[in-house]
Design goal:
Blueprint lengths: L10 H6 L3 H23 L5 H27 L6 H23 L5 H31 L13
Helix pairs in contact: 2-3, 2-5, 3-4, 4-5
Amino acid sequence: MEQTSTTRPSALDGVRRGGWPLLVLGAWSVLTWAGRIRNIVEDAELSGGERAAWLVPAVVFIAGGVLVLVAWRRGGGRALRPAVRAFALWTIGYWALRTVLLVGNGHSAGFVAVHAVLAVVAGGLAAAVLVHLRQTASGRQGLGMPTAGAAR
């Protein structure tokens, strides 16, 4: 009697197949913005309205990061591509605008430098995701994770 083995794809298969931009952007977004939410909630100088206004982008980044991680883990297929692309574009746009506003807002040089580094890292990861999406659209289906039962 012949046994057939069905191997479930490992989460690391996506990294090995080039899906690392999704993994890293998703994890970066969730981790950095979770810390920001803590800072916003604990900031006694913010009014209720200011707190709510600062929470909006933080929640968007966490939700987008989770979306990208889900897309990476599931292999994405075509269904999640538009949302992942929109999140990558949002990330680039947000940080481009935020950096300009920070520079012209009288913050200390250290504060601006830290946020400029955050902007460069997030923007670079988002750009890598966009490149990955373009490459996988032309050659392979999915976002870097093999689907269950796919040939290796």
